[in-house]
Structure formats: structure tokens, C-alpha cells
């Protein structure tokens, strides 16, 4: 059986994403661990914690799309674009439900979005929120994002309950702010829950209290997933022992018709490496070699 390489956690409101990673390190006794995609302390939902050598796969989850449920509160804007910051403006909530639905639909597709000043986006090596907290002016460049789908789940003024499917780099706080501007009413993000990160859904996630209970005695491996779970949908290349030795030495593997990229596994189904086809399709080239999970 493949060794456990990741845990899908349902982060509650309160702890930081780093708090959850530290809990997993202590409970599993695996020092090398990291999350893929920060959730603010005020947000809850899917947080994927990679363990051991699987931390090298973080980039493949970071490029994945996500799904959220959120509550947007109209009538007030804040400095942080969420409920954590002080109110910066107040105004009426004078639009109709139909206008709200139309405004939400207008965000679907590709568009430029400016991240919040209170975010982890780096400016000359420093995080934007560090500068903002010192009162410095933070001028962030807009980024191209994509909203795959957005729908209104409930509307009772001044709160709108929405569901959003979006690309990496999308800030729901900025979306709330922009939605308010489009409707002529100041707004901020009041609550946020991540339902999906790439292939991992909230239905797979384990509550933090239950996870704690599985550390003593150590039954957590039974709920952990193998490294290959990160690469769902990728083509699979099973390697023999000789080919595994080649890949581990950084050598190419001969192929009849190699195309794109693939997850290379051993006979037990464990992920050995990420491989990429060469330009002629005659070899698989090792791109990431996992020596441990």
C-alpha cells in the first residue's frame, strides 16, 4: 500500500493555517509538512496538509481551481475587505435581488482583480499586510483571475450568501469589495468557507477535533491519502526497478510515444517521480523525484 502523504483537514474558524500544520507535525511526528493555499483565521474549510516528500507537489495544488461559499455584507466597507478590519465607509443597501443576480453574473469569466492591501502578496520581498499594518501605502498590481461560476444561494438584506468557483489567485475579499462598488453599496466579506481545493472536497475533510483524537493512539494513517491523490487525472506510468533507479539518478527513460507529463509510480502504486516527455516523444525526463513520502 502507498504510504500516507497528505491529510485533508476541515479547518475551523479561529486557528491559522500554520497552526493546523504545526498540529499535524506534532501529531504525526513528521517534521516536513506544509499546507497548500492559506485560509485566513476567520475562514473555514478545506486545507490540504502535505507530508514528507509530498511537500514537493505543492505547486500542482496551488495551480488548481477552488470553490467557496461566502457571505457578503452590504452597507459597510472595511480596510481589510472582511469583518476583521475597521469600518471605512457606510452606505445604503438600495438595490434589488434581481440587480444582485445580474451583478454576480457580470463577474463570470476572466477579469483583472486587485488583491487586498492586507494580503500576503509580496512587494519587494515584503508581505503587503506588513506594510499596510505600518500605515504605508500599498499599491498592488491587478492580476488576471477567472470566475468559472458564481451563484446566489440566499439574499436577505444586507447579507448575500453566494457560491463561487474560481481560479488560483482569486481573493473573495476583493470580489466582495468589487461587488459592492458595482451595486453602489459599500461591502465586505463577512464569512468564508472553502468547499474544494483541486480534487479535494469538504466531504473528504476531517474535523480538527477528530484529527487530534486520531493522533493518540496513532490511527491517522487510515484517513491519510497517498501522494498520487494530488495528481488525479494525470496519466500514469508504472516503472520497473531498473527504471526507478534510472529516474532516481536523474536519467531519462526510453519511451515509444511520450506526451505531456505523467506521474511515475512503482508496483505498489507509490509515486516515484513527476516525468515530462521530451520534444520528440522518445524519452520521459524526470522533473521531480520523490525519495520519500
Summarize it.
With 293 residues, this protein is of the alpha+beta class.
Write the layout of secondary structure elements.
Blueprint: E1 6-11, H1 17-28, E2 33-35, E3 43-51, H2 58-62, E4 66-74, E5 76-78, E6 87-90, H3 97-105, E7 109-113, E8 122-123, E9 126-127, H4 128-133, E10 143-156, E11 159-166, H5 172-183, E12 187-197, E13 200-201, E14 206-207, H6 208-213, E15 235-238, H7 241-248, E16 253-254, E17 261-265, E18 271-277, E19 283-289
Parallel strand pairs: 1-14, 3-12, 15-17
Antiparallel strand pairs: 1-3, 2-3, 4-11, 4-12, 5-6, 7-10, 8-9, 10-11, 12-13, 16-19, 17-18, 18-19
Structure description:
Strand 5 (76-78) and strand 6 (87-90) form a beta hairpin. The model has no long low-confidence stretch (mean pLDDT 92). This protein has helices at 17-28, 58-62, 97-105, 128-133, 172-183, 208-213, 241-248; strands at 6-11, 33-35, 43-51, 66-74, 76-78, 87-90, 109-113, 122-123, 126-127, 143-156, 159-166, 187-197, 200-201, 206-207, 235-238, 253-254, 261-265, 271-277, 283-289. Strands 1, 2, 3, 4, 7, 10, 11, 12, 13 and 14 form a ten-stranded mixed beta sheet that branches. The protein has a five-stranded mixed beta sheet with strand order 15-17-18-19-16. Strands 5-6 form a two-stranded antiparallel ribbon. 20% of the residues lie in helices and 36% in strands. By secondary structure, it is an alpha+beta fold. It has three domains: 6-64 and 199-228, Pseudouridine synthase; 66-197, Pseudouridine synthase (2-Layer Sandwich), CATH 3.30.2350.10; 234-289, PUA domain (Archaeosine Trna-guanine Transglycosylase, Chain: A, domain 4), CATH 2.30.130.
